[in-house]
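yo

u said u wanted the structure for the complex thing, so here. seqs first:
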Amino acid sequence: MKGIAAIMDREIRAYFFSPLAYIVAAFLLLVNGLVFWLIVSFLNNPQARFGAPLELFFGQTIYFWLVLMFVAPVLTMRLLSEERRSGTIEVLMTAPVNEAQVVIGKYLAALVFYCFLWLPTLTYVGIVAYYSEVDWGPVAAGYLGVFGVGALFLSVGLLASALTRSQLVAAILTFALLIPIFTFGLLENLFNDPTLKQAFSYLNLWQHMEEFSKGIVDTRHLVYYLSATLLFIFLSAKALEAKKWR
Amino acid sequence: MIEAQNLTRRYGDFTAVEQISLTVDEGEIVGMLGPNGAGKTTTIRMITGFLPPTEGRVTVGGKDLFADPVGVRGDIGYLPENVALYPEMRVSEYLTYRAMLEGMTRAQAKKRLPETITSCFLEEVEGQIIGTLSKGYRQRVGLAAAILHEPQALVLDEPTVGLDPKQIIAIRELIRELGRERTLLLSTHILPEVELLCDRVIIIDRGRIVAEGTPESLKESWVGATMLRVELKQGTEGVAEILERIRGVSSVKPIDGGRSRFSLECEHASDPREAVFRAAVDNGWTLLELAEERASLEDIFVRLTTREVIEPTAPEPDESADEEVTS
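structre next:
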């Protein structure tokens, strides 16, 4: 446990020391701010349909996904690949911690930083609450969805980072893995067979987020994120272990 | 304390380390000596658990590395060959991190930190960012991190590389001090270091142990005989033959292929200097130099690691050189 905490602590500090993290934070905030502003001005039009701005904000614009698919590779690409490139992995793997602890410590750091990135968006909630009424249920569910999808995406990035010593390759690999994970669900529209349609709809992240933003917390979605995340973390630990034997 | 049995590491067809067995007893300082690429680092990496051996096993303090890797890693303090640090961290921050990685609490680390920083001469850079440090300082940060958690065994891969002479002396002093209460395995290619520090030396070449023993015993068994250097003003035909006939001289080798300078290998416990002088007088040679050369560990090292067939039962006179002289 102490090992995990030490690794996590160091990794979180490393985020705050790196300019890259600030670029990501600024980018995320800029895009989110812009989207929020667009949504609010759209809804302000008297002819617009009735809707809650925060509901649209979570996952109902393509920006949400683009940003997420950019943020996940950037936050995770360094985690393990840089350790191997610089040689610090030798210190890590001769310290009294096992591969699983290393991987978990790193992953948790990425997750914490990811949550930190979303923190400023709470001001949007504050703004809406100030001028109008906020339905807190859907907002909480929206954040839950952001957390769940983020957790899954970051675990994919972690695995990619465990597979290579190049940050660039890790980022590209993450992106390449995230595209099918994200778009698989969209294939549902291609099938008429109800079983296949249902299977793909189970994986449809876009639809998941739409439900979350409306305040529907479907535990099946959460189970999907959790199990997939754990799978990728497990694979990362195994990948790290396997690297030794070559 | 540290025990390695038949360690072998293969990379495909290439064998980096073959059947290396070594033990380091408690409180002993053992030095691993070998040319670059001999397999020192590979051996050390297998002992510290970074690299799994293809064959063989390692136990540290009775714990098997394969069965209890985390336990063994906790008992070893390790300074890797390329001291890799996180460039964005400050020295004290990094040391605290390493201490916590080894299972110490933040409070324990804080308590140990000043002492370690002083003993590794890091006071001046304690708050500095590691990325801005010189190679010598980084080396010492690595060393500090290895000893911070007070491990029972220390494994240091080239601990004095990149240091200036003054620092080398200070670090050697520190190593000697550490060796008093701890088990220490270090690798180096600096020969005087081994003679100064180590109780026992293991010489490795091409992945195998070629010699092992105390520095003194190595000197005795591997060079054994003393060498005489003889220089004459003018060399003439037959000098080598005359010198060779002197009692106590086992072989004569011309230096630089000339006829006026010779290197004489002497039989064990004999001192033929007087006889050489007499021979010079009798034959009317002008003797410019007659000096005894003591074998250094360096000679042994060069002899053991040059690419020739090695007979581990030296002292054996060099037969081939003999023939060269007489021809």
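Residues 2-213 of chain B form a domain with the Rossmann fold fold (CATH 3.40.50.300). The CA atoms of residues 277 and 287 of chain B lie 8 Å apart.
cya
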